[in-house]
C-alpha cells in the first residue's frame, strides 16, 4: 500500500476484502485489543479484587452505561433511512427501558448490590477523571465521524457475548454479594449478539471500497482503545500503584 506526498494512505493498490475476510480482520482486532484481557479484568475474573475495587468498577462503569443511549441517539440523527433508524432505536430502548426495565436501571441494581447508593452513582461526581475523559471521547468519536464509522465503533459487541458469560460466572463465584445485581448481564447475553450482527451486516454492506473497509477497522480499533483506557484509569488508581487523583469527591473505598 503506497503513500501520497502528504502521508495519507493511498488505497489504490489495496484489495477489497470479502465479507468473511472483513469479519476475520475485525476478529483479529478484537483478539489483540479488546479489553477482556486487560489486567483489571483478569484480576476481576480470578476473584482478586477487593470489595472496594469492585465498587469502584461498578461506579465508574455506570458513566459509560449512561452514555450509551446518548451515543445511539447521535447515530440515529445521522441516518435518513427509516429502516435503519427503526432497527437502531432498539438499542436506546434496551438501555433506557420502555415497558420494562432497561439496562441503565439494571446497572443501578448492580450498584445497590455492591453497596452503593443509587443517587451517589447517578450524580457521577465520584468517577475518575480518566474514565470521564475516555467515555466523553467515545461520544466525540461518534459525533464527529460518518455514519459508517459511528456504526463500526459499536462492533466491540462482536466480542462482548463471550466476555459477558465469563463475567457472570466469575461474579457469581467470587463476589456472591453481587448475586442480586446480575440482571444486566443476563439481558446482554442475547442483546449484544443481535446488535453486533446488525452492525456488522451494515458495515460490511456499506464499506464497499478498501478505503471504507479501513475506516471500519480503524473505528473498531479506536473504540477498543477507549474501553482499554477506562480500565487503565481504574487499574492505576485503585489497584497498582493505587494513586488516586486529588480531585475532591472521587470515590475512595475506605470512605464508602
TrEMBL record:
It is an enzyme of class 1 (oxidoreductase). InterPro entries: Haem_Oase-like_multi-hlx, PqqC, PqqC-like, Thiaminase-2/PQQC. It comes from the Bacteria. It catalyses: 6-(2-amino-2-carboxyethyl)-7,8-dioxo-1,2,3,4,7,8-hexahydroquinoline-2,4-dicarboxylate + 3 O2 = pyrroloquinoline quinone + 2 H2O2 + 2 H2O + H(+). Keywords: Oxidoreductase, PQQ biosynthesis. The keyword Oxidoreductase applies. It holds the Pfam family TENA_THI-4. GO terms for molecular function: pyrroloquinoline-quinone synthase activity. Its EC number is 1.3.3.11. Signal peptide: none annotated. GO terms for biological process: pyrroloquinoline quinone biosynthetic process. Ring cyclization and eight-electron oxidation of 3a-(2-amino-2-carboxyethyl)-4,5-dioxo-4,5,6,7,8,9-hexahydroquinoline-7,9-dicarboxylic-acid to PQQ. PANTHER family: 4-AMINOBENZOATE SYNTHASE, PQQC-LIKE PROTEIN. Belongs to the PqqC family. This is Pyrroloquinoline-quinone synthase. The lineage of its organism: Bacteria, Pseudomonadati, Acidobacteriota, Terriglobia, Terriglobales.
